[in-house]
Amino acid sequence: MKKNKKGILIFLAMLSVTIFNSCDLFTEQSGNNRTVSGQVLTSDGTPLADVKITIICTETYEATTDSSGKFTITGISPGRYSIEAYLYDYTIASNLESDCLSLVWEDKSDLSLTAYTDDNIPIGVIQGTGHTSPIKGQAVYNIEGIVTCLYSNEEKGFFMQDPEGDGNDSTSDGIFVKTHSELDEPLYETVPTDLTVGDLVKVSGTVDEQSVANYLGYSDGYLTITMIDKPIVTILSSNNTLPEAIEIGDNGKNIPYDTDENVINFWEPMEGMRVKLEDPLTVGEDSYCNFPCILNGGAHMNLDGIITDNGGYLLVDNVQNPERCFIYWEDYDDNPLAGSSFSAGDVTGVVSYTGNGIYTVNPASSSDIGSVNGVYADDLSEETTTIVGDSETLTVAVYNIENYGPEWEDDSETAEDADNYDDRNQKATALADDIVNNLGSPDIIVLVEMGDDYPTKVLYQNTMNSYYIPDGETSAEGNAKKLITKIKAIDSSLNYSYTDIAPEDGNEGGKPGMNIRVGFLYNTNRVNFTKVGDADFDDQTCPVKDNDGNIMLSQNPGRILDSSFNNSRRPLVGCFEFNDEPIIIIGCHLKSKLGDSPVFGAVQPPVFSSEAKRVKQAEAVAEFAAKCLTMDSNANVIICGDMNDYGFSEAVEALEVPYM
Predict the structure, then answer these.
(1) What pTM does this model have?
(2) What are the two backbone dihedrals, phi and then psi, of residue 368, each rounded to the nearest 5 degrees?
(3) What is the per-residue pLDDT for 334?
């Protein structure tokens, strides 16, 4: 056998072993040496001799149980230890309620360990007290549980729960059983096709920990789900009473308010178990049928919590609102918005962890959640601006048009086929309606995520990798023309023009093959734009003065080039004229948050690695604006766009310019 860096034993084939209570190890010197003693019994209470006990920190101590199953280790340096127990053909678990054996301040004289044979391991032992199973990779046999939920989100399978439980609040009595090798693959032949909630089943298979990749392909940094893979499932009986659900809320367990890590530790011991959420109130919705809620009718918020007029729960200064919980339910014809409740009152379901990096509660049937007493999109009127331009007032808007351009459909044979789809025309119609009727036809619109005119077939894609054949075509003139035509169809008096600088093909981030960029749409009835030079994607513009001493750009439009924008959208800078005054607009689309640790992920506190790059990008933008204002302290300079960050973030703060 060999050891890895954390001291977890890795056993070769043919050995049966459980490793448990592994932790980040450290030693705290605090007084005299310590002693640990205990006993190993089989699940039926028989003492077990010859079990090798090992505790590990910066030092390693060992003992072997005697004929009465007892052991004692003395002379241990004070500290927190992982503990390992091994005897061939047994799985051995301790009664510890945490991941580590603490010998910092006192001895441990009652360490109890239970040894199981492969065919009588409780689900709680498979789950263990940590975030991963102590017997990952091992085969288990005849594990019994009641089916509590059939599941087909990121993985296909079912949850089952031990109806008796092991009595340890630190271990989950429920587990996921994976029934398909891949999401779209057929059911394993060893799984009954008529499996239903309430069936008592017997499952044999391999214990595994799988990280559920999010919808963009990431899995690194996400937590794993403990599961039994490649199962053989036998139905023993049907219509059994489901295990009692754990109450979450005022009458049961309260979700912690303080840190994301504490919230993870709150949900993890209930992974795969039935819970009942007390009177959840939705505070938002997403495209993946996850409804964020706060419990007891909205009573449970942190002290800084703010509910918006539309019922949303506002994120305030890096407080991630960890007391939210999420309900996953995909069977509503129309998803409810913030401010909705459920006719069931309390919502019952099974705890899981999804590819969005959140714990969710998954109802087993419509009776567990009921209908919605709430708000739907059709119930709300779209907001319309009250800001109107006049002879003295210039209006500027930012609109992220979300990968606007033709996309290659799965059944397209050629680029021409893809371009014939009417998706782009439909989107252009909707965008034009927003621009004219909701935004009030702004004088200048900073368009974010304008795509190129040419559909590109992406052969493979996830967040980390994509493969497509670059076509060298990056112009967006066709997309802009379609949008302008739709605008004019609504209001023929509007005369918009468009300008941008096409990016380098495939080298500035965004959706593969679309070459998104920032562009300017401007109403020539209201503003003038004079093109200067013929800037390419690798040309830098600078503020200069014209012959009359007015500020202008060396290239108009131009770009801000800085190493922080490598593989990311470069800011577009334009100089417009309104009432004979130059207006400098810096349109930004800063680095996205892709690649950051999920808030409820394996890395705690989460690491937001993208933020440092956004800060550098913001500093480069602010430096350009400062140059403009140094040249002319009365210059009209606007920094705007999609900053991909919060108003209180360091990146947004870095955009502040002393002169502005």
Answers:
(1) 0.80
(2) -80, -15
(3) 66
